[in-house]
């Protein structure tokens, strides 16, 4: 089969790879029809995530058709069209029983630190991802769900990570009616977090980024006030000024490990690998939220140390909430919102890239060229 293969930092190629096979009675093999490049895939592409091995296939956002099932699979059959959450999870452990699918204890040798994910290095279990023609799906009765007839393929693939993660970011922020919510980052997750904040009762939504095309999308898709941090000496001072000098009630970090805005932090994280990620956005969140406020973190960080201003968080009495999104838990409510027509998530899609052209797609996404916000990946016919 054809698959994207990692060759080292900033080097990926599409080549022939062995077909995935049923390795356990609970496995399925899915023929991929559509995928996506996630902003967090860039952390792998840039060599930021530990134990990203040469030969790995990326891609944790994908939908497709069930090609083969193991003898114990009961909920799926060959030919079913499914959307697959990015979390690999068993559905039965202590954490899964509580809906914490992203913290499953049975799918990753490093499970005390992180759960399982498709295509996201051996720190998350070493599972190949869906930027390929076929992918092995463990615990097939737990993760995948049939794609409802009334949603498009593009909507379905956005439901496998970006949309639920943005929605989850707003949930973690504990928004109450009338709150001022600041979202740091106007990528797909930040845009969905900003749009979701309104659904949860926000009275004012502010989005911060430094890419004008993304800020424009934040205004037209998420109806947010926007600020370009590159145009201000100190974005935290500005955010304080526009929030009555108190700070925002809630701040959502939708940026994660590769935040711009501080050269020292960028060099010590992205270049020297001395931190698990640049904490610029998280530290801005801690500084920009009001005392007693809540900081929600859904931007991805590596497992190593990061220079976070924890003392400021403690002394301000902040609530810090964070996790990888338990995607499947978000689906029932999100499907209600989509069926009601509250918004169309595909408005943020800017590129549709064939599998064979994925190396170019990674370059476009990484360099933020051509107005790129969310590229989808088309596979097969």
Automatic annotation (TrEMBL):
Protein name per Swiss-Prot or TrEMBL:
Alcohol dehydrogenase
To which protein family does this belong?
Belongs to the zinc-containing alcohol dehydrogenase family.
Name the Pfam families for this protein: ADH_N (PF08240), ADH_zinc_N (PF00107)
Tell me which UniProt keywords the record has, alphabetically.
Metal-binding, Oxidoreductase, Zinc
Q: Does the keyword Oxidoreductase apply?
A: yes
Which residue intervals define the domain Alcohol dehydrogenase-like C-terminal in the entry? 188-261
List residues of the Alcohol dehydrogenase-like N-terminal domain.
Answer: 26-141
GO molecular function annotations of the record? oxidoreductase activity; zinc ion binding
**Cofactor or coenzyme needed:** Zn(2+)
Superkingdom is Bacteria
The record's listing under InterPro entries reads: ADH-like_C (IPR013149), ADH-like_N (IPR013154), ADH_Zn_CS (IPR002328), GroES-like_sf (IPR011032), NAD(P)-bd_dom_sf (IPR036291)
Source organism per UniProt: Ornithinimicrobium humiphilum
Q: Does the keyword Repeat apply?
A: no
Its lineage opens with: Bacteria, Bacillati, Actinomycetota, Actinomycetes, Micrococcales
């Amino acid at each position: 089969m054809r698959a994207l293969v990692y060759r080292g930092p900033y080097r990926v190629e599409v080549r022939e790879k062995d077909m995935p096979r049923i390795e356990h009675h609970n496995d399925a093999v899915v023929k991929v029809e559509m995928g996506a490049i996630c902003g967090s895939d860039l952390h792998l592409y840039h060599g930021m995530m530990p134990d990203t091995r040469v030969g790995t296939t990326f891609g944790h956002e994908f939908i497709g058709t069930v090609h083969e099932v193991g003898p114990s699979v009961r909920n799926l059959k060959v030919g079913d069209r499914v959307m697959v959450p990015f979390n690999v999870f068993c559905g039965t452990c202590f954490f899964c029983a509580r809906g914490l699918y992203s913290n499953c204890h049975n799918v990753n040798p490093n499970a005390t630190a992180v759960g399982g994910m498709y295509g996201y290095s051996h720190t998350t279990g070493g599972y190949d991802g869906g930027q390929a023609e076929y992918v092995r799906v463990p615990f097939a009765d737990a993760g995948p769900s049939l794609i409802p007839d009334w949603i498009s393929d593009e909507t379905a693939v956005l439901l496998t990570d970006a949309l639920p993660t943005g929605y989850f970011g707003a949930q973690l922020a504990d928004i109450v009616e009338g709150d001022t919510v600041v979202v740091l980052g106007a990528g797909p997750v930040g845009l969905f977090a900003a749009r979701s904040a309104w659904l949860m009762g926000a009275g004012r939504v502010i989005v911060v980024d430094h890419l004008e095309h993304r800020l424009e999308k934040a205004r037209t898709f998420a109806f947010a006030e926007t600020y370009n941090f590159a145009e201000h000496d100190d974005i935290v001072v500005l955010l304080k000024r526009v929030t009555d000098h108190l700070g925002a009630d809630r701040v959502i970090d939708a940026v994660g490990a590769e935040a711009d805005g501080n050269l020292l932090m960028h060099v010590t994280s992205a270049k020297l690998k001395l931190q698990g990620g640049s904490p610029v956005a998280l530290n801005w969140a801690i500084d920009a939220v009001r005392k007693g406020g809540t900081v929600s973190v859904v931007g991805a960080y590596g497992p190593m140390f990061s220079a976070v201003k924890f003392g400021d968080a403690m002394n301000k009495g902040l609530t810090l909430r964070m996790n990888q999104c338990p995607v499947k838990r978000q689906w029932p409510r999100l499907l209600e919102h989509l069926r009601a027509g509250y918004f169309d998530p595909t408005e943020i899609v800017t590129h549709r890239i064939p599998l064979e052209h994925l190396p170019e797609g990674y370059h476009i996404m990484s360099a933020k060229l051509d107005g790129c916000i969310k590229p989808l990946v088309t596979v097969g016919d």
